[in-house]
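Aim 2 progress update. The chain analyzed this quarter is reproduced below.
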Amino acid sequence: MSTKYWMAPIALLLLAGCTTKSEVTVTGTDTNSLLSSPAGVASNSFLDLEGGIGYKLDVLPIRIALDGDQTSAMQVAPLPSCVQTTFPTAGTTLLTFGSGCKGANGWALTGTMQYTQIGTTSPRVHDVTYAMTLTDTTATKTWTYTGTKRVTVTATTATITVAAGTHVTVAYADRSDTSKNKTYYYTPNLTADWGTVGMIKVFGTYALQQVPGDTVTATILQANPLIWTAGCCYPTSGTLTLAVGPARAEAVVGPTCNAMKLNGNSIALNACN
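Predicted structure tokens:
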């Protein structure tokens, strides 16, 4: 899709990291250019990692049953037909993404996401390990998500963090032009709350550090959280405020499913799996 927007505001230009050699500079107004900027990466990766991997939310709260009677926030059952669920060992649940699965950017999603139970007492704690790849239609460009986060679940809330000194790696590779390859470290500090019937609210912060390069810091205010409602795999309201030093950009989701604006520029997210 294209937009009518052609003169990027200073915040988006700064967030595009034009002085960092490993960055893909935003030179156009198309969706791919916007999503390849750090502001776009910070928004799109977040939706892939924390938004349910494109699941339609037919039931709330958003949970998936785990081995040992565990539950996880920010997922949903039943899963789409492109996802296979297995229990390889006691206390672990493995989701395998197959043909037909797609990420928020529309690229084919393959790989796995594993839940590992940590202890047996309340609150329920488990690690979520990503080994996922998004591949474009030419099979020359990929995004990969690898690493482990920790989810601690209570009756109606969950916290999403990583162990001290660790991160989830978000990496882009272009076999046709390796100068565009780039790597980010994703570090969440989020809270999910499904205490209100019919919705789940997510707020907090996360960082996306380019290696080497600047760090994009995202803030989601509790007073203006991202809100998921039944029937859509993406939030339909809320704002991500993205910052690199004094530069600012905003990603606003909704009000319809699959809709997001990055500094006022419309980006259509891929249809839910």
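The radius of gyration is 18 Å. The first strand starts at residue 63 and ends at 66. These observations will guide the mutagenesis experiments scheduled for the next reporting period.
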